Amino acid sequence: MNKNIPLTPEQIPPSFHRCFQSDCPMADTCIRFFAGQCLREGQICGPAVYPSARTGNTCKMFKQKRIIRAAYGFKALFAEVKSKDEAYLRRRIKAHLGGNATYYRYHHGERLITPEQQQWIIALFRKQGYTEELRFDVYVELYDCNLE
Length: 148
Hints:
Blueprint: H1 31-36, E1 54-55, E2 58-59, E3 67-72, H2 75-78, H3 83-97, H4 100-107, E4 112-113, H5 115-127, E5 138-143
Antiparallel strand pairs: 1-2, 3-4, 3-5
């Protein structure tokens, strides 16, 4: 996995809490501090981590800086699915991802699928007997700015 990928303001969700506490002992490993150094041009406000989140050398808002292999879209997953299994698989994925509208955003590649979500979906397909080349539509390496 590439360790030198850039972080751009477009990769950071608008509601992601950024940190600006350069004196924090965890700043070098925290994605929130890293994101705080990457603002959109002209951005003057937004969600932030307050100093009260820190207690000594710990922070309640700490989120490890990590690069993930995210996926987008799962049309390719359903390409070889038998029609008798399709409704069941869609129903289970919808329930896992949070409903109809959210499902279709993931399905059409509008929302990134985290490695943990990918594992869950692949396991579901395997449990249904699908073992051949299970892959999502697109993969990309990026910093994990997921809100969860």
